[in-house]
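Chain and conformation:
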Amino acid sequence: MASNVLGFLKDKNILVTGSTGFLGKIFMEKILRIQPGIGCIYALLRAEDVESARNRFKKEVMRLELFKILREQHGDNFESFIFEKVVPVVGDVAVDHNLGIDEATREHLWENLDAIVNNAASTLFDDRYDISLNVNPKGAKNMVEFAKRCRKLQILLHVSTAYVIGHGKGRIMEKPVKMGETIKAGNRPENEGGPPFLDIKAEFDLLEKTLAEIHTDSSATTSTGQSSLQDTDTKRLKELGLERFVTLTSHLLIICIDVINLKIKIRFIHEHLNRARRFGWPNTYTFTKAMGDMLVENLRGNLPLVVVRPSIIESTLAEPFPGWMEGTRTMDTLIVAYGKGRLSSFLADPNLIVDVIPADMVVNEMIVAMAAHASQNGLFIYHSASSIGNLLRSSVATDAAYNYFSQHPCVDKDGNIVHVKPPLFLESMSRFRGYMYRRYKAPLQMLGLVNSVFCNMFRAHYTRLLRNYNFAIYLAELYEPYVFFQGRFDTTNTENLFRKISAEDRKSFNFDVKCIDWTHYFSEVHIPGVVKHVLK
């Protein structure tokens, strides 16, 4: 049976946002490799001009090992093939409904685009609120408005996250995020008896007010204090979206030397309430992605819309080769810290199910969903997840990490081998805090006193231990909502989609999580990939 998916891709013109991001790169590589007959991929990039966009694409995308198979296939013609099929476009989803694209280019796109893949996102859990709001909800809204101007568009695909649900329990269905619906009462209409709701416009108004206040405060400072206040501004905008726990805040404030700046930081921290947690989301990322889903799903009109919501995305399972990574993903921060000896205990229940999905499976599902729903007027939502189809317990990942780093230990900056110990599991935040105090904080306090008495003789050692302690606390507080997440993502729509495609397409675009051997994946694929591509 012929491939319906390859047939769909042939001669298609696709606009891709987030083209220099992790998924965006894998998405483009896959299409260019399996369907060289693609019409054109328009890659939206932030850049000064077309030449700068082209150079950025060459540096951040084409030169990666990810493209080694394509490079081998095309040899000396690799670059000419890429730029025959890929057109870098100067723009930014956060600018306006024209995406910051010049008039001639956007008219060309409106006339010729068959599909749009909106993969642009601010994915840091604790990013500045202005960045997260402008990219995640505003960027998504701008993309819908841009898509509506396209004259022959067959499909708009929006990449979200399964964690738009916030804190979840039980089976979490593949369904829309209702406009204004919150996880807990964070705001109420004037009628106090009304249901809790989220006013997205009010969030942008609050952001504008905060930016105006920052501008006023900055203008009132002397030129000597401006660089210090730039850090304060960043801190303030982060706190607006995600107010850290008091303990973490106090740790960060230790590094502040300037007394006036310290007072300003404290005032900024306590001046703004926690926006994400006020409404029930654990961090700025999931909060603003939920807003983006609300806007996309409610403003689409007659657009055929696919929303793909991956869980925790990790390295590639098979394509273009096993174990390709870029940057530290969610779990990898912990794996890297453990391998380097900076983390010996895990805030986790070893029997708890964690939901991980290899990046190439997410991309395969994206492509198949585009082909399946092209020109269908409707909203189609898919979880790209594993917590129901193929259970993964957290102990599988940590056991694999221990075994790997025992056999292949890291080396510290002084050339010493880092010996890892079997990980200690702390199954609640209270146990974690108690352990950290007894094991690290109390000895650190004693060392601090000794260091003071002996005129900073042990300053370097004290600073290193304090940094490791603060880092462990930071990771625990940042990932606590995920390591104890008790929901499981329903994948009924995803499983039905996989069953409907041809046998050939199942081989070429596999996203069946049942085929994953998690022990082999972490031991032989993922952790070696992290070491090669992240710890290099």
Notes: The longest strand covers residues 40-45. The CA atoms of residues 23 and 359 lie 7 Å apart.
